[in-house]
Amino acid sequence: MNASKCTLAPLLFVLAACSPACTAEQAVSPETGESGQKPPSAASSPEADPPSQAPPSEMIEEAKGVDLTKLTDPQKTSFFQIINTEPSACGKPHSLAVSLRDDDACRDSLSVSQFVSDALASGASPSDIKGALGEVVDSLRVREIDVEGRPVYGNERAPVTVVVFADFECPHCALEFPVLKQTIDQYRGRAKLVFKQFPLSGHLRAKPAALATSAAHAQGKFWEMAELCFANQLSLEEDDLRAYAKQAGLNMAKFESDYTSGVGAKLVEADRADGEKLEISGTPAVFVNGRYQNQFLFGGTVAGWIDDALRR
User: Fold this and answer.
1) What's the burial of 263, exposed, middle or buried (CB within 10 Å: 0-12/13-18/19+)?
2) Structural domains in the chain?
């Protein structure tokens, strides 16, 4: 996420290691620190047939479209060894190298190969890179995410959909919230943001805040209410939420009725269930056109992931 920077150094290749997040298992109050999140796994992704090891005489020593300018000669040797022995990122029965040479339709192999180059340039070992490739490839797998009836920020007909699963007591979600909105604004109708509720069990006021913002959504005021909740994470008691509803300009009689009756409870629970199916273990978790956004591809920013989505 944009809230933190990290390098592709050895032993930091588990995608959870560098992304700050509030985790389901270790969620704590905003006054203390959080540990990282584990990205959705590849459990449901079909495995590609492993390519055969290319003899040295058949090794492909070209990588169309990949920037290798930061690599030393020994690192270039490691790069070509990796892409000649690791499988296509598109599930084809050949190597990344063959995919780059012969399969222009496979953008994922290009992205993964660029990851290999960037990782080597950052000092990562070939064994660390190979150990990370499965998660990197899986992050590019398109997930089906239900966004019907959820709050939308931006052009509803935009070709790129950014989905964020967030918790109102998570400090990292509060930091990411304005960044996501600003990113959507810069794309001028080509991207939209959809909010999915993922209140963590360790954050006791996260679910009431989720229900309050859902009641605000029923009046077309979700984003105003959400902004107030994120700005006041240490004050999410019942009276606080009612004060924010009034500040957001809600019809208080309707808000009170919808909030106390839990009118948005089904959607909140459905969002939580969707997140669990995606194996989200922490917040914020961001998906761009169904692909799990992380900082190891496309410059590590949501904007970079949107740019990639627009090129597809």
Assistant:
1) middle
2) 6-19+63-141 (no CATH), 152-285 (3.40.30.10)
